[in-house]
Specification:
The complex is a heterotrimer. Chain A is an alpha+beta fold. Helices cover 24% and strands 35% of the residues of chain A. Classes of the chains: A alpha+beta, B alpha/beta, C mainly alpha. Chains in contact: A-C, B-C.
Chain lengths: 350, 343, 714
């Protein structure tokens, strides 16, 4: 096994009667950034705290870098964590915060300070060393927290919703920085978030969790293109879910949507009720009617400069679609007809 | 980690400091006034060369302590305070006969020594008396009391203060005195009548005198030597020896049973009944009557010859069962019967 | 785990085989015992082979641990071996010490009081067991945490439960030494002389239990309210003379007992200055209204408001400004912000302040004694049950149990009110906001309540100082230095000689208090840390047991300590150490309460951040938690120092000729009516304590969480 890998073997966690984690098996490869994504209460933060050693598992084994750390206290795990609340020590200056982990490991003061300053350079905060955390902006504080975690050169870096306290613009900026640092230092990182866009943007691999277990894992593209459930389809990127009946499976799959018979390339295991997944940009909107098109009416259209967002009413419910701006925008109340490429649609269980 | 060891080691080291027993000196508990305790200890050290450590505690506290320490006492001698607790300690075997010659002492001192089987040697006498505040009395236009019976007069309603005999030896002496003077039934009747005038039963025996001196109260009952001290301090008070006669307490000195310093303890007993040692009391305002006939006294101090004294029966009224019976009766017939008038 | 266990194993072996097992005649650090190491001061190992075979028993535990360390490789197996042998060894040591050759002992044999060797061996066995327990995965696998829990349980057991059992068992004593039983306990416990409610209907008197309860509730309510007003003025207004106010709020706690009572009598007594003035000016009749509930309440308000203040100031300061700002941006006005945001966030502090006020009030002894009049409370009744004309330890024990029942109920009520809500407001997310100012009604209420009170306190203290410089307070007001000279005379002739009467007790008091204060704070804060930050079974019982000693009247503790520590196996009476111990364990609850309040405001992610950064619990405590708890530590230190100097009821029985305390000296003078020197001494103590407190404040200072503590301007 190599340095930086993380492995869970049938790990469970419960607090009395409350099950926080059903038996979980995980394998995280060294040098990758893996995101634990899911709605709140899905067990993602519990998983992170188990890796950190802040909670003991109820059963199962946890291995970091191939070594069994199940009973090792957090102090001795080579794991650093960035907290949602930043958890900067308010009584220490920025550089003292960053050097903290080094000094508790008995590094001499000058060296620790030097390393801490290097860490600050890495996150772009040179010159802020002697300020108190309270004198920094939220984004700066978050970067201090990151610097504090990475100067220790941990085997695994844990990030618990690190951006949730930042504004949208800053969020994008900081997440890019985190990703760059992770790649530059070739760190293994586990990143917890409930924001799918953030997850898509930074991850090598995403593990989507739901109800204390894994719902699906894979690369961002995998999850987006091949959701294995309506939940994933809906959670990863926007998706329109249309109720269909699968009438034939084989080379192509035939489905019936209301009165329409459509043919899609996505496979499906059986005949019967299913849901058709359509991404908003995969829907073509036309004023003209043609065979196999879905009739709709524009309920709402929003011009966003680079695109137009449409909310469309159909007999199957509302459909959300986006289209590039045109010179003849379709107005509210107009009747339209929708179509999609057979290769684009996916089928998932109801 | 190293720091944790260091802290543990430090804590242990501090603990180790407590693993030694005490050094050998004479340990005296003194139930007299602090200044008198200090002066006596100082003189004793100078005159005998014996190292002595003295601490002041009230008689009740001392008795509770030597009871708890029985069998392995940390105190060698108990000096001063009223005689009753000394007699109780003697009867419970907490003290031991000193074997000191008391033949040169006044009669009551010898009687005390004899009664306790040589365990408690009488060192001073305190006479029971009445104190009143002259300013308040004239302000209110009241007559000065002269006798115990006067205290029952209705015009003194809310003006009298006396200690609770359940907590104070002084008050018990007063209770026993009235019972001996008037007989038990008549005595309790008088106590109840006086009780109707009492504004507060204090916990401490000397509190009524002090409250009277400060003008918080008009008439108080207590020991006359305390009152003399107050008067000498300049308070507007007068002291009365009740016309029917009054009781008294005999203060004592006892050696604690099981003391490892018996010899030095005996020296202390011999010393505190000697004339020069007792005479020194005047320097610090001790106005009780010393047991040594040759000791000097102050002219303002109470004089046993000038006061009508009852023949106080320490044997009967010091006994635990009499005490318990009288106190129970007092609680039922006097305390719960009324009085406690808050003006 | 292994290195820690090896450390304690070797410590245990040294304790058993090299140090004198029993108490030595001279101090350990004088090393006089080295001479007797083959004689009376033999170590346990030597005694074991020379006629005291039971001393082999503790070594069995060490042996077991050694075998466990040598022959097991798997962590869990080693941990089990350590836990088992440590606990067994400790049990054998305690059993041997209690049962062989002592007053409880069914087994005959010579077994004097334990000394250095036994102490070190017992500690080693205890920590071997706790290290083992940490290896089993308890306390997050942290030997420091389990060791701390073990140490505190052992200390509380030894210095609270063990002595108290001696006195509480007497509650079940049958009359005439007929053994023990409950047949007399219940009738006496529920007796109407204890629980009478005659005063409610205006007929006669209430029992001391009812009186204590009413007084406790009134005092706790009053002091919490007053403390909150002062705390608000400090943190939420721009009141100009905050420094002066701070000193005034501290003064009453550093005042030796009886002094406040005396000053009140001189002001409000029947012959008091104000009473006389009112009688002269508007013809209000002079009465003795002060003696009773009102007077005691007033004195307790003066004495205990500062405690509430000290608890509340940390809490009020700790409420995060951004929460208040958030509220204001949500269009709440200042009153609504206070009512719905700040006030609820202060709840743990208020509950703690109330609990402390209640317990202090019902355990208070000095004020009811001086001002109680005919108003009897439990604490004075207990005192006189022990030292009165008829000593009745059973009654004292029963009343103590009543008092404990009140404390326990208050504790539960506080639990219920605060609940398990999370009140963390100092989070790792730095905060640069400003505290919301108070709305004007609240501000003026605070001013109108607190400032006259402060003025009143000031008058009282001016009077006390005045009293120490006049011949006879109340009568002869000519200036004199006589009282100071008698107490604190210094002769400089061939060196410096402290000849004043007070010097001895003054030095003893300062030394003992200075030793006891940091120990109290340490034990208190460590306990608070465990209670707030660690999870372990039996936490509630653990928390209550640390509160126990505070709730029991000092008199009871004093007698209990004599009963427990005057005989083998532990003999401490007559030493200075017993005073230190009694202060540490009596005052530790204050440290615990303050620590809990302050610590529950620190977000747990700060600890977790520190731990994931590679610090262990001990380092985290030292470098993150303690620095953030400045005010709480200061409060604990200050308060335990001051309590040690000013406490009287517990020490009365424990002071000895060699180790006399200032309060017992002062009480002696007060009893003798020598108010002058008593007050002069009290003034010197007050000044001393004030100097010490200010020095501590300078050293420890305030938390620098925000560069400047700003209050929004009006």
């Amino acid at each position: 096994m190599t340095k930086g890998s993380v492995r869970f073997e049938n790990v469970t966690k419960d607090y009395g009667a409350v099950v926080a984690l059903k038996p979980l098996n995980l394998d995280i490869a060294p040098g990758t950034l893996v995101t634990l994504l899911g709605p709140s209460g899905c067990g993602k933060t519990t998983t992170l705290r188990l890796v950190a050693g802040l909670e003991p598992p109820s059963s199962g084994r946890i291995l970091i870098g191939g070594a069994d750390v199940t009973h090792l206290s957090a102090t001795y795990r080579r794991v650093s964590m960035v907290f949602q609340s930043y958890a900067l020590f308010p009584h220490m200056t920025v550089v003292q915060n960053v050097a903290y982990g080094l000094t508790v490991k008995r590094m001499n003061k000058t060296e620790a300070r030097q390393r801490a300053e290097e860490g600050l350079v890495l996150v772009g905060l040179e010159g802020f060393a002697d300020r108190l955390p309270s004198e920094l902006s939220g984004g700066q504080q978050q970067r201090v927290a990151v610097a504090r975690a990475i100067v220790l050169e941990p085997e695994v870096l844990l990030l618990d919703e690190p951006l949730s306290n930042l504004d949208a613009k800053l969020r994008r900026h900081v997440r890019e920085e985190i990703r760059q640092i992770q790649q530059r230092l070739n760190l293994t990182a586990i990143y917890v978030t409930h924001d799918q866009e953030e997850a898509m943007a930074v991850s090598d691999r995403i593990i989507v969790m739901k109800n204390a277990e894994i719902a699906q894992e894979g690369s961002p593209e995998d999850l987006y293109d091949n959701p294995n459930s309506a939940f994933i389809a809906d959670f990863i990127g926007d998706a329109n879910l249309l109720p269909v009946d699968v009438t034939r499976v084989g080379e192509t799959t035939e489905v019936r949507l209301g009165t329409l018979n459509l043919s899609v390339t996505a496979g499906f295991g059986r005949i019967g009720a299913a849901q058709l997944v359509l991404r908003p940009h995969q829907i073509a909107i036309s004023r003209e009617h043609a065979e196999g098109r879905i009739s709709a009416e524009v309920a709402y259209a929003a011009y966003l400069g680079n695109q137009i967002q449409y909310t469309l009413t159909t007999e199957f419910g509302e459909i959300f679609a986006i289209a590039p701006p045109t010179t003849h925008p379709i107005g509210k109340g107009e009747a339209v007809h929708l179509s999609f490429e057979p290769a684009a649609a996916r089928l998932v269980e109801v | 980690m190293k720091k944790t060891y260091a802290i543990s080691a430090l804590a242990l080291a501090a603990g180790l400091a407590g693993t030694a027993a005490m050094a050998d000196t004479l340990n005296v508990v003194c139930s007299n006034e602090q200044a008198w305790c200090d002066l006596m200890a100082q003189n004793f050290e100078i005159d005998t060369g014996i190292d002595v450590a003295v601490v002041r505690k009230s008689t009740g506290e001392t008795l509770a302590q030597i009871r708890a320490e029985a069998g392995n006492p940390k105190v060698d001698v108990w000096w001063g305070g009223t005689g009753d607790p000394h007699l109780i300690a003697a009867s419970e075997g907490l003290t031991t006969p000193s074997g000191v010659d008391v033949s040169g002492q006044l009669g009551w001192s010898q009687a005390m020594t004899e009664m306790s089987g040589g365990k408690a040697v009488g060192v001073h006498v305190g006479l029971l008396g009445v104190i009143y505040n002259t300013e308040i009395l004239s302000e209110k236009g009241l007559d000065a009391p002269a006798c115990w019976r006067d205290l029952a007069k209705p015009e003194y309603k809310g003006e009298i203060q006396v200690a609770n005999p359940n907590s104070s030896g002084t008050a018990y002496t007063e209770l026993a005195t009235l019972v001996q003077l008037f007989g038990e039934d008549e005595g309790f009747k008088l106590l109840a009548e006086i009780g109707a005038n009492v504004n507060q039963y204090t916990k401490s025996g000397s509190a009524p005198g002090k409250a009277t001196a400060r003008g918080e109260n008009t008439i108080g009952i207590g020991f006359m030597h305390d009152m003399v001290n107050l008067k000498k301090q300049g308070f507007p008070v007068e002291i009365v020896a009740p016309c029917e006669g009054t009781g008294y307490e005999v203060g004592a000195v006892s050696i604690i049973n099981g003391t490892p310093n018996m010899e030095a303890a005996q020296k202390w007993v011999e010393y505190v009944i000697s004339a020069p040692a007792q005479s020194a009391g005047l320097e610090v305002g001790v106005y009780n009557i010393p047991s040594n006939p040759d000791a000097a006294t102050d002219p303002a101090a109470p004089d046993m010859a000038a006061v009508k004294l009852i023949d106080y029966d320490f044997k009967t009224y010091g006994a635990s069962d009499t005490r318990a019976r009288l106190l129970e009766r007092w609680t039922a017939e006097v305390k719960d019967a009324g009085g406690l008038v808050e003006e | 785990m292994r290195p820690t266990a090896l450390f304690w194993l070797s410590a245990g072996l040294i304790g058993w085989a090299l140090l004198p097992w029993y108490m030595t005649d001279s101090g350990f650090w004088s090393f006089g015992w080295l001479a007797g190491l083959v004689g009376e001061n033999r170590p346990g190992a030597a005694w074991a082979v020379t006629g005291r075979p039971w001393l082999t028993l503790p070594a069995l535990g060490l042996m077991g641990a050694g075998i466990g360390l040598a022959f097991t490789r798997r962590q869990l197996a080693t941990a089990r071996a350590l836990t088992g042998s440590g606990a067994a060894g400790l049990g054998l040591l305690v059993g041997e010490a209690m049962l062989v050759g002592t007053r409880y002992g069914p087994v005959a044999g010579e077994n004097p009081s334990l000394g250095a060797g036994a102490l070190v061996t017992a500690a080693a066995l205890l920590f071997l067991a706790t290290t083992g327990i940490s290896g089993l995965g308890k306390g997050r696998g942290d030997a420091f945490v389990t060791g701390l829990v073990g140490a505190i349980i052992a200390l509380v057991g030894m210095f609270v439960f063990y002595p108290l059992s001696f006195i509480l068992i007497r509650a079940f004593e049958l009359k005439g030494g007929a053994g023990f039983g409950v047949s007399e306990f219940f009738p006496r416990f529920f007796s109407s002389s204890v629980w009478g409610i005659g005063c409610m209907s205006g007929q006669g008197h209430c029992g001391p239990a009812i009186n204590s309860l009413m007084l406790g509730l009134a005092t706790a309510t009053g002091t919490t309210f007053m403390g909150l007003m002062f705390a608000l003025i400090f943190t939420r207004t721009e009141f100009p003379a905050k420094k002066l106010l701070r000193v005034l709020t501290i003064l009453p706690i550093i005042t030796p007992p009886f002094v406040i009572g005396l000053a009140l009598i001189l002001l409000f007594g029947r012959a008091g200055t104000i009473t006389e003035f009112l009688a002269w000016a508007i013809d209000i009749p002079k009465t003795r209204w002060l003696y009773g509930f009102q007077g005691v309440w007033l004195a307790q308000m003066l004495s205990f408001t500062p405690i509430a203040f000290l608890v509340l100031i940390g809490v009020v300061e700790g409420v995060s400004p951004s929460m208040e700002e958030a509220s204001q941006t949500l269009d709440a006005n200042r009153w609504q912000t206070f009512r719905y945001v700040s006030f609820p966030l202060m709840r743990p502090g208020l509950a703690n302040a109330f609990l402390l006020g209640f317990i202090e009030s019902i355990a208070d002894f000095g004020n009811p004694l001086v001002l109680g009049g005919n108003f009897n409370v439990l604490s004075t009744e207990i005192y006189f049950a022990i030292v009165g004309t008829i000593a009745d330890p059973a009654k004292a024990a029963i009343l103590s149990i009543t008092l404990l029942a009140f404390t326990f109920s208050a504790f539960l009520a506080q639990r219920f009110w605060v609940g398990n809500k999370n009140y963390a407001t100092v989070t790792g997310k730095a905060d640069s906001g400003r505290h919301a100012a108070l709305n004007s009604v609240l501000r003026w209420t605070a001013y109108l309540v607190a400032l006259p009170w402060a003025a009143f306190t000031m008058v009282l203290y001016a009077l006390i100082i005045f009293g120490s410089f006049v011949k006879l307070w109340g009568y002869d007001h000519s200036f004199t230095l006589e009282h100071y000279i008698r107490g604190f005379k210094v002769v400089i002739r061939k060196g410096v000689h402290f000849t004043g009467a007070a010097w001895d007790s003054y030095f003893t008091t300062l030394t003992i208090s200075a030793i006891a204060a940091p120990m109290t704070a340490a034990v208190g804060i460590a306990t608070a840390y465990l209670l707030v930050r660690q999870k372990f079974t039996g936490k509630n019982a653990f928390e209550f047991s640390t509160m126990l000693s505070f709730a029991i009247p000092g008199t009871v503790i004093g007698v209990a300590y004599i009963m427990a520590f005057n005989f083998p196996p532990i003999e401490l009476t007559g030493t200075g150490l017993i005073l230190i111990i009694v202060f540490v364990f009596r005052n530790m609850p204050v440290g615990v309460r303050g620590g809990i309040a302050a610590m529950s405001q620190l977000d747990a992610s700060l600890d977790e951040a520190s731990i994931t950064l590679g610090a262990n619990s001990a380092t985290t405590l030292r470098r993150v938690i303690l620095p953030l708890m400045g005010p709480a530590i200061l409060a604990a230190l200050t308060y335990s120092f001051v309590r040690a100097i000013t406490s009287v009821s517990a020490v009365v029985f424990l002071v000895s000729a060699r180790h006399n305390m200032a309060t017992s000296f002062i009480v002696g003078r007060v009893e003798n009516g020598e108010y002058g020197i008593a007050i002069a001494y009290a003034s010197v103590l007050i000044v001393t304590m004030l100097a010490v407190i200010l020095a501590m404040q300078l050293v420890i200072g305030r938390r620098t969480l925000r560069r400047a503590d700003r209050v929004e301007t009006h």
